Amino acid sequence: MAQVLDITALLGSAQSPDASTRNAAEAQLASLQETQYPSFLLSLAAELSSAEKPVDARRLAGLVLKNALDAKDAARQAALSQRWMSLDAGVRAQIKQLMLATLGAQVVDARHTAALAIAKIAAIEIPHQAWPELIDALLQGAAATAAPGAQQAALEALGYVCEELGLLEEDYLEQDAVNRVLTAVVGGMGKHVADADVRLAATVALNNALEFARKNFESEQERNYIMQCVCENTLAPDVRLRQAAWECLVSIAGNFYDALPAYMPDIFALTRRAVAQDDESVALQALEFWCSVCEEEVAAREAGEASHGFVAAALPQLVPLLLEQLTKQEEDAESGGEGAWSVAVAAGTCLGLCAQAAGDAVVPLVMPFVQANIQKGDDWRAREAATFAFGSMLEGPSLGALHGLVSAGLPFLLAALRDPHAQVKNTTAWTIGRTLEFVHGSDPGNPLIGPGNLPQIVQALLEAIHDPATHVAEKVCYALSQLAGGFADPGAATTPLSPFFQTIVQALLQTAARPAESAAEAARLQTQAFEAINEVVRAGAADTVPLVAQLVPLMVGRLRAATAALPAGAPAEAAEKQAEEQGLLCGVVQVLIQRLSEDDAGKEAVPANADAVAAALLEVFACREATVHEEAMLAMGALTYATGHGFVKYLPAFFPVLERGIAHHQELQVCQVSVGVLGDVCRAVEEGIAPYADRVMTAVLSSLGSAGVDRKLKPPLLSSVGDVALALGAGFEPYLPAVCGVLQGSMALSAQLAGSEDEELAEYNGGLRHAILEAWAGMLNGLPRAQADAQLHAAVPAILDLVESVARDPAEDRDLGIWKAALALLGDVAATLSGAGKALGQRPALAEFVEEAGRVPALRETANWASQVIHRAIRSG
Fold first, then answer.
1. What is the pLDDT of residues 169-207, one digit of tens each?
2. pLDDT at 145 over 80
3. Cα 445 to the chain's mean position, in Å?
4. Which residue numbers delimit the Importin N-terminal domain (predicted)?
């Protein structure tokens, strides 16, 4: 039976300034959670609810309770939820009642913490229909007749509950409950409510509840009332309330864009007031509203859908308003500081999104401001704002609208890299990078950069990369990256950038190693420099390959230096810095190997460096840092492709690392990359994987059968089965029963998910089907025909059912990659399995599928081959 423990002193010790006292108390709290879970949670709830306990103890009790129910990791959250639901129902009821009672406490912190805890409990219990009375209880507390503090806390709890439920995959709030919640929160927002905290809590709660309000926004009367209350609150006396109201409008723009036309004139008037006159926190949200509108209209255009054109209609008034804000830079900008998110930065960001949404129409509205201010020698703010405006408008307008302006402006920008003010230089380098990203290389017939101006551009950038301000050097690295990218020409013998390759790479290597005022600045600069090196190498023509080959031992040497053991007692920051550097260097090594693998001259340079590369990467794996593990694994994947069957010599040392990576479910990216590299290894060494086959398949099948594995891993794991089958050939037969069972289960799951209206589930099912198709194809092509016929014949009906489900995809949802895999598998079935022709002949939908695919240029060759093989199989019976 759960009992209330006296934990007040323990909670106080857990907040002690003395580390040993604090650590001991935290350890004791953790022990209580493990050994006396029911009593521990009940004691925390009692502590939080007791008016006699110290405020600090009550606050911490609530937070510990909340954290005992909450985890970021999905598997951990599932375990915590299960443990809570396994508690005696009476104990859970006691805890919940104490939490609800605490919403009426005098202490604000206690009410707030109780609201958080209630939401976490609700997220666990409501999906189990275990707390049906919660919404009614909170609505009762949120009534206007309640005391202001209790009303505020109940509204806050409603908001948190809606927020938590909104994160779940299914909707657990019935429409009637949604209606009552909205009535309560909108009622609490009104001007007639005297308490500002109540109005604020109601407004925040509305924001959290908007995800459930789709039907309410379809009703003009309900929508008008909600919008009226939100817009009124943008003018409220309390700045917190004005900000929260604008945050609501941002959410409404993202969720209910099509409901906005009637309100946009009023919203623009409110925008002008908020941006030009209000507190910065409010202005930022008003700008965010227009950013959201821009993003909606860009997304609509990319999807081929119509939009209301709010941005284009507002441009003549909106752009001048944005330009006015660009001169409101932070004061530390003059000394070159990077500055926080500010009205000036937000306005520039919004201007950039307007350019994406409205295109060419932005240019004539921006250019007069640029021309009037970019050369104001006595006003650095004007020069920086003009440069920022020019750079911001470059993504979206057509090349025709920009080319002449950029061509004329580039000399001014290069000269401005020597501006006396660091912020102007910083923005100039960024703007040059933007011009190179969006204009350079876009029109080969009318190039922005050629032999006439390239030397001056390179010289200016290489001078600026030595600027004392590291953030200026960062932007120059970005510009050099875009300069190289614009010259990328696969297969070219040379490009105009080839003569500068070595000089640019040397400058970037020096920049990557230069010190900075802070570790964070040094890390950012190093990252930008190495990323620029990668882009320069990728874009290098054939005549740069010898220089690329020379870089390999240099970078391998740096990588080995970065894996040296740190001195005893080195701070944690040193280990973190070392891990980051290892990851960056692994990325460079990967790019170098990939570039050398792209042509014959480069491939000849790989064997001489392969042993050193493999040894250095194995040293990185020994560090066991998950993030570095991922980068090193990708580099090893590049080495498998470059060395081919020769990679088999590295398998004794590398395979245990690969095996651990496949089993490392807790790090999703590491596991995904490891599974991908398994496929690379199989394709490279083919039958050379045989000595490791049992361990490979044990790891893969164990992961596929584990409930604790993230579902995103299932498709790549299934695809890897096909890679292993192709590599092993006849040696794959022992694994067929287990693999076929897994594939049957996966096909059943895919059938359940077919037609799902949930976009995320539909996307997942697409990847799942593709992987299943690849797995079957790998087995059909890898196994000798007699083995395949004997072992896989029984699976033909299920395989054909899967392909038919692909054929039924609506035209707008068709994925050509999946269709091609389905066509190829049909051909494999027809060519490999005796008697398949009869099954195929009985399915006219499949013949229609192949015929329709043959009309798609990208699928025609595969469809024609499949059609021929299928017809032969049908004729032969």
1. 788 888 998 999 999 999 999 988 889 999 999 999 999
2. no
3. 37
4. 25-105
Query: What pLDDT shows up at residue 625?
Result: 57
Q: Which CATH architecture has domain 398-540?
A: Alpha Horseshoe (1.25)
Lowest mean pLDDT among 145-159, 488-502, 564-578, 847-861: 564-578
The residues, ordered by sequence, that sit 6+ positions from 303 with a Cβ below 8 Å of its Cβ are: none
The answer to pTM > 0.85 is yes
Check pLDDT > 90 for residue 648. Answer: yes
Per-residue tokens: 391: 């750079």
Q: Structure tokens of 552?
A: 């390999």
Using CB atoms within 10 A of its CB, is residue 521 exposed (0-12), middle (13-18) or buried (19+)? middle
Question: Would you list the DSSP string of 239-270?
Answer: HHHHHHHHHHHHHHHHH-GGG-GGGHHHHHHH
665 touches 712 (CB < 8 A): no
Q: How far apart are CA 403 and CA 711, in angstroms?
A: 47
Structure-block tokens of residue 249: 């409008």
| Residue whose token pair is 């040497």 | 557
Torsion of CA 800, 805, 806, 809, to 10 degrees: 160
Residue at token pair 């029984």: 794
User: What residue spans of 706-815 are helical by DSSP H?
Assistant: 714-728, 736-753, 759-782, 785-792, 796-807
What is the C-alpha R_g of the chain?
A: 31
The whole-angstrom separation of Cα 639 and Cα 633 is 10
- Phi, psi dihedrals of residue 112, rounded to the nearest 5°: -60, -45
Q: Give the rounded distance of the alpha carbon of 617 from its chain centre.
A: 27
Both structure tokens of 284: 């930022």
d(C-alpha 691, C-alpha 655), whole Å: 10
pLDDT band at 603 (very low <50, low <70, confident <90, very high): confident
Q: DSSP readout, 602-669? A: HHHHHHHHHHHHHHHHHHHHHH--HHHHHHHHHHHHHHHHHHGGGGGGGHHHHHHHHHHHHH-TTSHH
Instruction: List the chain domain ranges.
Output: 260-392, 398-540
Tokens of 777: 């194809």
Write the pLDDT tens digit of every residue in 340-396. 789 999 999 999 999 999 999 999 999 999 999 999 988 999 999 999 999 999 999
Smallest CA-to-CA distance from 575 within 528, 519, 527, 494 is with: 519
Distance CA 655, CA 757 (A): 41
DSSP state, residue 491: T
Residues 6+ apart with CB under 8 A from 628: 579, 582, 583, 586, 620
Kindly state the greatest CA–CA separation across the chain.
89
Q: Rounded to 5 degrees, what are φ and ψ at 23?
A: -65, -40
> d(Cα 586, Cα 263) in Å, to the nearest integer?
53
State both tokens at 412.
Answer: 């001014």
pLDDT value for 517: 85
